[in-house]
């Protein structure tokens, strides 16, 4: 038993409906959707400001193996337990001269903070931006965000980039919120053979490519997937067709899972054997959730936990993005 307990136990994610949830000691972070958390809140509660697809409240809990301790450092609050840290940085864009300067400042602060922690390796990042598709061409806010992020992360080699998500909120204007999971040991990045590495996207998608890896393997072989969409190579597919975008995304997820399986030599999670998949789904239009849910449940082997959110996706033609955790 001692040997088992000393093995690195990865953080686990679980989704709950409703606004009542227990903040047990082992919770590293509680990301709240579709509801405003109460005042006098616990540091670990993060108000994301995204709605669920059905409009009700929901929470995403990240748990580890023991009791978490919490602290803060400037605009960063964080919780730590053993090998893992969950952080949240919130800044107001206007305090930093707008986008892209705010994104650059945020990522510089984040990296500087991380270098001082025992859990110094970035594993998984979520970027929650207001009005992500506002602005034309290279002035679109997502592209401006990518420019600032790339500058803020310029000291990080592409092969160390964390898995990521960048989605758009419709409220909490002006707030840039970045949440992340970090660890004492580096993750192993996994590429998707069907997709160009995001950090090598060609110029047509903006002045600086997005800084993220397609997935990260934790030391215990759990895999944290990035937000995955209907993109093949670097091109969006099935403009405006949600069902076809879901199907293309599920093929991408299967290829990503297979790529992870090859690195870990695990028994084929991608085939549904030995798979336990938690999936968080971002839909541009919440009312498409019933049909989208049925299609995802039918096409994603091993899915046992599903959270449907309403959010804007970073390319205008994309209607859905899915992020998976394979345990
Ligand atoms: C894509 O594959 C879809 O900018 O951090 C997915 C995950 C996407 C993360 C990011 C963007 C990001 O390009 C968009």
How would you describe the overall organization of this protein?
The structure is a single chain. This protein has 327 residues and is of the alpha+beta class. The chain has one domain (12-326): 60s Ribosomal Protein L30, Chain: A (2-Layer Sandwich). Helices cover 20% and strands 32% of the residues. The protein is built from five helices and 19 strands. A seven-stranded mixed sheet has the order 4-18-17-19-14-13-12, with helices on one face. Strands 6-7-8-11-9-10 form a six-stranded mixed sheet, with helices on one face. Strands 1-5-2-3 form a four-stranded mixed sheet, with no helix packed on it. Strand 17, helix 5 (289-299) and strand 18 (303-310) form a beta-alpha-beta unit. Helix 2 (101-115) runs parallel beside helix 3 and helix 4 (242-264) runs parallel beside helix 5. The protein is globular. Bound molecules: 3-(2-carboxyethyl)benzoic acid. 3-(2-carboxyethyl)benzoic acid (3EB) binds at residues 127, 164-166, 198, 210, 212, 226-227, 229, 231, 314.
SSE arrangement:
Elements: H1 2-6, E1 12-17, E2 27-33, E3 45-47, E4 51-52, E5 58-63, E6 69-73, E7 76-81, E8 84-92, H2 101-115, E9 121-130, H3 141-152, E10 163-169, E11 175-183, E12 188-190, E13 215-217, E14 223-225, E15 231-232, E16 235-236, H4 242-264, E17 277-283, H5 289-299, E18 303-310, E19 320-326
Parallel strand pairs: 2-3, 9-10, 17-18
Antiparallel strand pairs: 1-5, 2-5, 4-18, 6-7, 7-8, 8-11, 9-11, 12-13, 13-14, 14-19, 15-16, 17-19
Helix pairs in contact: 2-3, 4-5
The protein binds 3-(2-carboxyethyl)benzoic acid.
């Amino acid at each position: 038993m001692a040997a088992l307990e000393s093995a690195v136990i990865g953080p686990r994610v679980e989704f709950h409906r409703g606004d009542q949830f227990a903040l047990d000691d082992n919770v590293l972070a509680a990301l709240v959707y579709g509801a405003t958390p109460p005042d006098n809140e616990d540091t670990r509660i993060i108000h994301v400001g995204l709605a669920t697809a059905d409009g009700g409240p929901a929470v995403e809990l990240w748990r580890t193996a023991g009791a978490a301790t919490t602290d803060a450092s400037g605009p960063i609050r964080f919780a730590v337990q053993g090998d893992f840290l969950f952080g949240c940085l919130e800044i107001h864009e206007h305090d930093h001269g707008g986008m892209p300067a705010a994104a650059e400042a945020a990522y510089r602060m984040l990296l500087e903070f991380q270098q001082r922690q025992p859990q110094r390796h970035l594993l998984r990042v979520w970027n929650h931006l207001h009005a992500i598709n506002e602005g034309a061409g290279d002035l679109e806010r997502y592209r401006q965000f990518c420019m600032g992020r790339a500058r803020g992360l310029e000291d990080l080699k592409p092969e160390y980039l964390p898995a990521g998500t960048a989605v758009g909120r419709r409220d909490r204007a002006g707030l840039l919120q970045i949440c992340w999971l970090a660890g004492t040991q580096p993750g192993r990045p996994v590429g998707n053979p069907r997709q160009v590495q995001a950090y090598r996207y060609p110029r047509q998608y903006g002045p600086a490519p997005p800084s993220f890896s397609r997935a990260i393997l934790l030391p215990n072989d759990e895999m944290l997937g990035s937000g995955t969409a209907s993109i093949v190579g670097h091109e969006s597919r099935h403009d405006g067709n949600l069902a076809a975008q879901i199907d293309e995304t599920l093929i991408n997820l299967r290829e990503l899972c297979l790529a992870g399986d090859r690195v870990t030599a695990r028994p084929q999670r991608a085939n549904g054997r030995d798979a336990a998949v938690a999936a968080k789904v971002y839909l541009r239009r919440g009312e498409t959730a019933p049909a989208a849910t049925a299609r995802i449940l039918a096409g994603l082997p091993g899915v046992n936990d599903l959270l449907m959110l309403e959010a804007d996706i970073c390319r205008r033609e994309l209607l859905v993005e899915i992020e998976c955790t394979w345990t």
